[in-house]
Amino acid sequence: MSINQGGWRPTMGESDGNTDMPTYTGNRALMLEEPLIFERGSVNVTGVDIEEAPKVRSRLGGLERNRDIGLPGLSEPETVRHYTRLSRQNYAIDLGLFPLGSCTMKHNPRLNERVARMPGFADVHPLQPVDTVQGALGVINELAVWLIKLTGMYGVAMSPKAGAHGELCGVLCIKAALEKRGETDRKVLLVPESAHGTNPATAAFAGFKVEDIPATPEGRVDLAALKARLGPDVAGVMITNPNTCGLFEPEMKAISDAVHAAGGYVYCDGANFNAIVGRVRPGDLGIDAMHINLHKTFSTPHGGGGPGSGPVVLSEALAPFGPLPFTERYADGHITLVEEETVGDRHPDSFGRMTAFHGQMGMFTRALTYILSHGADGLRQVAEDSVLNANYILRSLEDVLDAPFAETGPCMHEAIFSDAGLAEGFSTIDIAKALIDEGFHPMTMYFPLVVHGAMLIEPTETESKGTLDQFIGALRSVAQRAKAGDQALKSAPHFAPRRRLDETLAARKPVLAWKEPSQAEAAE
Ligand SMILES: *Cc1c(COP(=O)(O)O)cnc(C)c1O
Predict the structure, then answer these.
(1) What SS3 state is found at 205?
(2) Strand partners, 328
(3) Which pLDDT score, from 0 to 100, does residue 28 have?
(4) pLDDT at 423
(5) pLDDT at residue 6, rounded to an integer
(6) Ligand 1: which of 98, 100, 102 to mutate, judged by most atoms within 8 Å of the beta carbon?
(7) Peptide bond just before 459 cis, omega within 30 deg
(8) Which has the closest alpha carbon to 192: 219, 164, 155?
(9) For residue 337, which of 134, 94, 190 has the smallest C-alpha distance?
(10) So what's the pLDDT on residue 518?
(11) How much is the pLDDT for 257?
C-alpha cells in the first residue's frame, strides 16, 4: 500500500496574496515546510534491515494483529530531518523572551545540563540496589534539605512529578490528616476565584467540594469573606501566593491563623515561588503544604523541553502523612529509600505512593546545581530581579495598556494588563497573535479569569534590560495599533508558518489520529 508518497501539497498558510510568493517546494528560504510523518513516510519502506522473524506458535489466542500496523517507515536521515524541521517551526527559551505568565520561563543554565549528564547521574537505574546509588540518593536528600531550609517547613515529599501532581500530594495529605482526626465531614476546599485551573481540579479529583473565595477590587483574597465561610465542613484553603494577579497576599498569616483556628489546613500553590525565594519563608506564613515547581523556580527545562517536578514541602502537622518513598539518612551517613509503611512507630500514617520510583532524578540534579551555584545571595537576587523586571514592564506600558492593579502598588514577578481600551472588536488574542509576528512567544492570555481579557506577562530575572526594551517596544507598537483599530492585526500572524487557526474548532473537535485521505474523505 502506498500512502500519498510525494503527493503532499505544502500549504503556505492561506496566502493573502500580496506578500507570499509561492515557491515550488512550499519552503520559504530557511523556513522549511514539512508534512506530517504519515504523509512523508510509507508503510512499504523501513529505515532498518530487520531479518524476517522466525515463525513461532502464537499463544495470543485470537488477539494477534491481523493487519499492518500502518506506521510510516522512514530512513534515519529522513527521520532526523522531519523532527529537525518541525523543531525549527517552534519557539524556545533559547531563541528569545518567553513571557508566559505563571510559567516562569527562565534560562536553563548550561551548568545544570552538564551536571545532569554526568554518567553517575544520567545512567543510574531506579531499580539498582541502594548501596550502588548512594550518590544519587545523596542528591535527592541534599535537595530536600535545601527546599526545607528555603521554605522554613518541616518535611518534603520529593516524588510528585509536576506542580499539579504536587497539589494532589498536598491535598491527599490534608485528607489523610482529617481521616486520622476522624473529621471526614470536612468536605469543602475554599479556592480563590483567581486560582490556577489545576487547584479546583485537584480538589475535585481528591473528592472535595470546591467553593470560591471572592477577590477584593485590589486583586487579593477577601479575608472577611473567607473568615465568614470557615466552619466545621471546611477542610482548608488552596491559595496561591504571590497570587495569579501578580500580587503578594500580605494577609497570608492572618488567613492561615483563621483557617487553623477553624480546624482546617492551608495549601499554598507555590508555582510563583520565584518572586519570593530567599526573601520569604512560606513556613513563617503558617502554610501546611506547598508544591514547588522545580521547572519554574529552579530552572529545570519545561514546556516541551523536559518533564516537570513538583516536590511538596509540608508542615509538622502534615509531614507524617506524606507519600512514599522518601530518603532517610542515618547517623553513619548511609542513605536509604523508605519504600513501605513500616509497622509500629515509624511512618504508619503515609497516605501511600504516587509514583513508581523516587521522582524526577534529572530534575533533582539540575535544581540542586542551580541552588548551589546561586547560593543564598544569588537566590535572593533571583527574586529581586524577577520582580524588578516585571515592574519595569508594568510601568513602561501602563500608558498604552490598561493595568487593572497598577494603583494597588508594585507587582511581584508578573505584570497584568487587560483588553480595556482597545478599539471596538479588538481583544487580547489580536495582540498575542501580532506578538508572534514580532518574534516573541505571546504572554498568557485570558488568565486569571478575574481580569477581563487578561494578559499576564512574566519576564523572569534572566532577561537583560536590552531584551526587555525590545519586547516593550514591540508590545507598545502592537497595543497602539490595536487601539487605532488596525485591521491587519485581526489576521495576524502574517509571518508564521501558519496563519490564525480556528482554535475553538480545534478544542471542540480535535482530530487526534491521522487517517488516510481516502478514508478521511469517505468519513466526511
Ligand atoms: C504552573 C502552575 C501550576 C501547575 O504546575 P504544573 O507543573 O504545570 O503541573 C499550578 N499553579 C500555578 C499558579 C501555576 O503557575
Answers:
(1) helix
(2) 336
(3) 87
(4) 97
(5) 41
(6) 102
(7) no
(8) 219
(9) 134
(10) 73
(11) 98
CA-CA distance, 433 to 411, in Å (whole number)?
25
Buried b (16+ CB within 10 A) or exposed e, 317-345: ebbbbbbbbbbeeeeeeebbbeeeeeeee
Q: For residues 496 and 500, what is the distance between their CA atoms, to the nearest angstrom? A: 9
Q: Residue 176 corresponds to which cell in the numbers above?
A: 489523610
- pLDDT at residue 276, rounded to an integer: 97
Positive or negative, the CA dihedral 282, 102, 412, 377 is: positive
Chunked into runs of 10 residues, the chain (524 residues) has average pLDDT values of: 39 46 86 91 81 88 85 90 92 94 96 96 93 95 98 97 97 98 97 92 97 91 96 97 93 97 98 97 98 97 85 97 92 89 76 93 97 98 98 98 94 97 97 97 94 97 98 98 97 92 92 78 58
Strands 155-157 and 335-338: unpaired
Instruction: Tell me which DSSP letter residue 274 carries.
Output: G
Q: Is the CB of 192 under 6 A from ligand 1?
A: no
Parallel, antiparallel, or unpaired: how do β-strands 209-213 and 188-192 relate? Answer: parallel
Query: Is the beta carbon of 310 within 6 A of some atom in ligand 1?
Result: yes
Distance of CA 268 to the CA centre of its chain: 16
Q: Label the pairing between strands 265-269 and 289-291.
A: parallel
Please, what is the end-to-end C-alpha distance for the chain in angstroms? Answer: 22
Ligand 1 and 160: CB distance under 6 A: no
Instruction: Tell me the CA distances in angstroms from 32 to 27, 113, 145, 434, 497, one per residue in order.
Output: 5, 29, 48, 22, 9
pLDDT of residue 8: 42
Q: Which residue in the block uniquely carries the three cell numbers 500519498?
A: 4
The finding on whether 309 has its CB within 6 A of some atom of ligand 1 is no
Spatial separation of the C-alpha atoms in residues 387 and 213, rounded to whole Å:
26
Rounded distance between C-alpha atoms, residue 210 and residue 191, angstroms: 7
CA of 271 to the centre of ligand 1 (A): 6
**Which residue has the least CA distance to atom 14 on ligand 1?**
271
Rounded to two decimals, what is the model's pTM? Answer: 0.90
